[in-house]
Amino acid sequence: MAKISLTVDGSKVSDDVEPRTTLVQYLREKLGKTGTVVGCDTSNCGACTVHLDGTSVKSCNVLAVQVDGASVTTIEGLAKDGVLHPVQESFRDCHGLQCGYCTPGMIMQSVALLEENPDPTEEEIRLGLEGNLCRCTGYQNIVKAVKQAAGSGAGASTAGAVAEEMDS
Amino acid sequence: MTTTQDRPTEVAKEIGKERRRKEDQRLITGRTRWTDNIVLPGMLHLAMVRSPFAHAKITSIEKTEAEASPNVVAVLTGADLGESQGVLINAWAITTDQVTPTHLPCPSDKVSFAGEIVAVVVARTQAEARDAAELVDVEYEELPAALDLKKSANDEVLAHPDLGTNKSAFWKFDSLEAGTGSSIDEAIEKARADGVVIEREYRQQRLIPAFMEPRSTVVDPTGEQITMWSATQVPHILRFALAATTGVSESKIRVIAPDVGGGFGGKLQTTPEEWLTFAIANRLGKPVKFTETRSESLMVAHHGRDQWQKLTLAADKEGNVLGLKVDLLADLGAYVSLVGGGVPVLGAFMFNAIYKFPAYQFNCQTVLTNKTWTDAYRGAGRPEATFGIERMMSELAAELDMDPLELREKNWIKHEEFPFTTVAGLEYDTGNYEAATALAREMFGYDELRAEQKRRRDAGDKVQLGIGISTFTEMCGLAPSRVLGQLNYGAGGWEHASVRMLATGKVEVVTGVSGHGQGHETAFSQIVADRLGVAFDDVEVLHGDTQIASKGLDTYGSRSLVVGGEALVKAADKVIEKAKPVAAHLLEASVDDIEFSGGRFTVRGTDQGMAIGEISAAMFSAHDYPEGMEPSLDSEATYDPVNFNYPHGTHLCAMEVDTETGAVKMRKYVCVDDIGNVINPMIVSGQIHGGLVQGIAQALWEEAVYDDAGTLVSGSFVDYLLPTAADTMNYEIDHTTTPSITNTLGTKGVGEAGTIASTPAVVNAVVDAVRHLGVNDIQMPCTPERVWKAVNGVGAGGEDPTEGAAAAHFDPATGMEGTTDRTTGGTQA
Amino acid sequence: MIPAPFEYLAPTTVEDALAALAEHGDDAKILGGGQSLLPVLRMRLNAPEMVIDLGKIESIRGIRDDGDAIVIGAMTTHAAVGSDPLVAEHAALVSKAVEHLADAQIRHRGTFGGALAHADPAGDLGAPALALGAQFVIAGPGGTRTVEADDFFVDLFETAIGEDEILTEVRIPKHTGWGAHYEKFVRVAHQWPIVAVAAAVRVEGGVIAEARVGLTNMGNTPLRARGVEAALVGVQATEDAVREAAGKAADGTNPPSDLNGESSYRKHLATVLTRRAVVTAAGG
After folding, report:
1. pLDDT at B829
2. For the purposes of burial, counting CB atoms within 10 Å of the CB of B262, is it exposed (0-12), middle (13-18) or buried (19 or more)?
3. B313: which of B509, B619, B754, B825 lies 20 to 30 Å off by Cα?
4. Residues B218, B221, B226, B231: what is their CA dihedral angle, to the nearest 10 degrees?
5. What is the Cα–Cα distance from B583 to B188, expressed in whole angstroms?
6. Half-sphere CA count of C111, side-chain side, radius 13 A
7. Do A136 and B294 lie within an 8 Å CB cutoff?
8. pTM for the whole structure
9. Cα radius of gyration rounded to whole Å, chain B
10. Cβ A139–B725 below 8 Å, yes or no?
């Protein structure tokens, strides 16, 4: 067992974990952050994407012991004070989800994408989401949602959110 | 009693509105309830020990070491579980003499496909269960495996030697025998003499549904009722089958399908994992969970398609079709699954498609092999049929040097000919192929693209352009129960709904269909809001729990709206009928003078009226209501469809083919679907986009590949290629509308349309791009290698199997080959 | 899926990491960014008893200018390499290869040294490193040694790094002013390349003065197409002129056959992709 302390969605947490525990397993099983899900074994699907110290990572591909002292934001910490993040809003508005299983990862990656590139072209959006698989939507409305969020200035607001993550 | 409230001038219609989905607030904030999220006190976890061999005798299972592993509660084999494990059913024996192997969830003597469960470890954590599963030492005596479909059909190697054959069932439809058409043999003979006969053999490769949420099951036996949560499309069928095969009373079983992350037919199954979780929870008296890994899911959750199609199309020299003969071989895998051989049989009625064939014959042989079982995958039988006929119509056009759209138009049912009884015996109620095609042609810029294609051909461009067509129809809305009875299906096709009028004016709708991403809560709310004249937000849709929705037949076959929605309409109408006498009573009027519109009951010729919610409240208090009536407006309805439902559409696809590398790139995709009246255009667009991509993926990317030993080599997302956002594009969709006349709302199913239509459109386009180079077929998926070979005259068309080897990306010693999520304990005796 | 149990160490210096490696030997596995190792562990294709995480060693992270070379610390993430102006200016081929390596999340976490040490012949970094003549700085119990790119890649997933050694940095000789292109051929975006070609060329007056060409997934290791390089010298930087030299790309290679294509198809692809890579690198 190893002791870890970190910040998750703005709350400080501290636990003893087995070194083999992946970050996603820790989030789901220890913290009950079941909004983040597992979709594959090979890190292809991106369903488990979270932000680690301000950048998107696949939380199945990170060990919990590696994030000692870090700050993690999950889909559950994206809305602030009950106000949806613009990317969450645009996913709903553009019908960027159906079954919703890929959605947490898709939204977290979209937020990261817009933070790095606030005004992406369609091709940049599509390439930026290549690490996230969706089986329902055919991606068309996801791409539309990211475009719409970019148009609403989500990139800028995201940058703020990420800075906040880094501070906390 | 309020009788003079301000009346809303005109109630806005909900149907047709792009309502944002009610489901989404939870899904976009992570407030979800997937089965794997469920945690119960003292819950135990399962890990499966699976066979690495496709076909082998189990000679011994040594479990002592596993049992001694930390926090292991039990290690159970098939022998330990005995009859308590129940048995998995086939609900559709397509012939009365179908050969159906017994399917135990955990066999004790022999394994029949790689991935079959041979032992189950129960431990306090998932990790500990997995650790111990590595320690179970199973010895096998490997047997020759029946793998290749054609060879298996000849009984060269037997998948189940005790059955004496791999041939499960032979199903035939002949238009002459059925009285729906003339003799196919005569039609072909005539065409051979003075017409054209096109003969082709097409491969429907094996696909994996690959829903994003891996399957998971939790069983809690600690109450009077045993509760099962499962990532399933079919909670009602699951409850029935559990009760029927385990001896537990149906009323003691509650099945809940909570949030379910996609299905596409892949969760239309009753599975060994569900049965074992149920049996072990009952045995131990503790809540038990099993969640599969992606590797397990790809390996053992049922696969789809997997057919060889031998097709013979007879026509005269002017391009009038004379007859179609279909000879199918369909790979069942190791067992006959829930729907099993019924999937290819669903195609029997669709090969003739929208065309007026005078003669038709369909022959299908289902075959057992030592591979993962197959069952429904989005479209189930109909994509295979549509692919076959749409490829053949394009081949006929090429043979006759006709424009493929004109050839189709020459042969299709004209809009004034509906209703039309087809050569397969179905009555198509409505449709207008001319209108959909005209719009698609215009949106696509068909003539301009043809001109560009010619320019590129003439110039000998390295990148050639091809145009593919698919004018599809399908039969959905499964299904009229009497028809299912004639087909020997084990259940009906009705659907149930109830409407509860709550005292607060809210409306609870309970439906027997079980959504898993389709947006039922939103679309059904729109229907009920319009029907009852209540606010969209005042309608709550409940589903997916056999205790709440006690009756239903679940979600598949594009049935939820056209069958489930119609049940809902009928239940809502009963509410109105019940409320009328109450309104008359309270308004002191005659029932005959009561009118209902926009959610209000009014007395004809007066300004007296009451909202339906007020009547609900009055019936709740029940202080004053008509004599002889029950104090309730709640109503239910069970609807059995009178016919299938026939959406159709014209899909046009332009593909660019790099003749130097064989790489293909989609340039443009236009589809105009006629799905009748639309409840929510936004949801419909999502269904079409997603359906298109699954169909396009069959044409270009996906294939479940086995090696010579029967190991699934495309056993992870590294090798089973799902497209990403970067591989897809924006598809241009539109609609023409001929309302269905077999349901009140005039709707047609849309869930499978995109998948059914798109595959042949894409392959037709790829072939069209290089036809001038001597190519008339490219096997699916149209990989760059296959395309390049075809262009270069190497192995074009016919059988061109994919190399049965995966790249070793993760580790030199083991790579990914043959190692997908198996315990390493297996040794060969 | 959950890995088999292991112990975990996160040393903060290379010396401590080497000591841990010396102590645990065969039973230990080095964790860089973990983007290849963690899937292997989760699928239990490997079950080390000890995982030594290099993530806390700051000295082997970062990029610096060292005269005639750019030095990339082994633990520098792909994302950092991809956005680094020094790399873009002096080793553009590396920037191009990193740009589409795996996906954004993997690039945020995966490391330059980790990917090279993993030595997947389908990995995107081997061919550019080889083409640019990278030098691999390897620390071991006896000190530090430098291995030339030609000697670094030994076999499938095997490099010159000894069991008691750690790759600390990669020195890439500056190719300032060279045109570069990484031509990657995939069926879907998230795939490893079926074949890819890394090309860097120095063009003088429309004629190729020098060329460097590396091949991805054309054998058990990344390969350098020296025959192509030699044949390109003095050739006009046009498609037709380059065609003949590119035709030598598959000479002497023995690429794998798998789901995505047979060996012979890969050989054909290599010639087409080499031509395209060189022409694009030359600005054509």
Report:
1. 34
2. buried
3. B754
4. 0
5. 67
6. 27
7. no
8. 0.96
9. 28
10. yes
Do C39 and A42 make contact, defined as CB atoms within 8 angstroms?
Answer: yes
Burial of B624 (0-12, 13-18, 19+ CB in 10 A): exposed
If you count DSSP H runs as helices and E runs as strands, how many of each does chain C have, helices first? Answer: 12, 14
Give pLDDT, residue C281.
97
Note the pLDDT of residue B795. 56
- Specify burial of residue B502 (Cβ count, 10 A radius: 0-12, 13-18, 19+): middle
| A23-27, A158-162, B249-253, C112-116: the lowest-pLDDT one | A158-162
In contact, A2 and A19? CB cutoff 8 Å? yes
Handedness of CA B58, B64, B65, B69 (dihedral sign): positive
- Tell me which residue of B653, B668, B654, B663 sits closest to B456, measured CA to CA: B654
Tokens of C132: 């640019």
Using the CB atoms, write b or e for B35-55: b if 16+ within 10 Å: bbbbebeebbbbbbbbbbbbb
Cβ neighbours of residue B69 closer than 8 Å, sequence gap 6 or more = B123, B128, B131, B132, B135
Instruction: Please tell me the distance from the alpha carbon of residue A28 to that of residue A30, in angstroms, as a whole number.
Output: 6
CB contact at 8 A, B713 and B802? no
Tokens of A99: 């079954």
Residues β-bridged to residue C122: none
B96 C-beta neighbours (distance < 10 Å), count? 7
Alpha carbon distance B72, B47 (integer Å): 11
Strand, coil or helix: B116? coil
* Under-70 pLDDT residues of chain B: 1-12, 795-799, 810-829
- Condensed to tens digits (0 to 9), the pLDDT of residues B349-383 reads 999 999 999 999 999 999 999 999 999 999 999 99
Looking up tokens 């309970």 gives: B510
Phi, psi values for residue A113, rounded to 5°? -60, -45
Nearest to A2 among C8, C34, C189 (CB): C8
d(C-alpha B334, C-alpha B336), whole Å:
7
| Rg for chain C, CA atoms, rounded | 19
- Paired tokens of A147: 């475009």
Phi, psi for residue C43 in degrees, rounded to 5: -85, 0
Looking at chain B, which residue has its C-alpha nearest residue A136? B690
B78 three-state secondary structure: helix
| Contact yes or no for C6 and A128 at CB 8 A | no
- In total, the C-beta contacts within 8 angstroms joining chain A to chain C are 92
What distance in Å separates the CA atoms of residue B90 and residue B340, rounded to the nearest whole number?
7
Residue that the structure tokens 């290089």 belong to: B770
Q: Which run of H or E residues covers position A122?
A: helix A122-128
* Tokens matching residue A48: 């488990």
The answer to whether B718 contacts A104, with C-beta atoms less than 8 Å apart, is no
- B210 to chain A: nearest residue by CA? A135
Q: Is C42 on the interface with A (CB under 8 A)?
A: yes
Cβ C191–B718 below 8 Å, yes or no?
yes
Cα separation values, B766 from B318, B436, B699, B772, Å: 26, 23, 10, 12
Closest approach of B124 to chain C, Cα-based (Å)? 14
ipTM of the complex: 0.97
Whole-angstrom Cα distance, residue B47 to residue B79? 17
CA distances from A144 to A94, B443, C81 (A): 7, 21, 30
**Measured between CB atoms, does C104 come within 8 Å of chain B?**
no
Are C228 and C242 contacting, i.e. CB atoms less than 8 angstroms apart?
A: no
CA–CA dist B544, B511 (Å, integer): 8
Nearest chain A residue to C41 by CA: give it. Answer: A20
Give the tokens for residue B456. 């590129």
What pLDDT digit, counting tens, does each position of C210-257 carry?
A: 999 999 999 999 999 999 999 999 999 999 999 999 999 999 999 999
Question: B633 CA to chain A: closest CA distance, Å?
Answer: 33
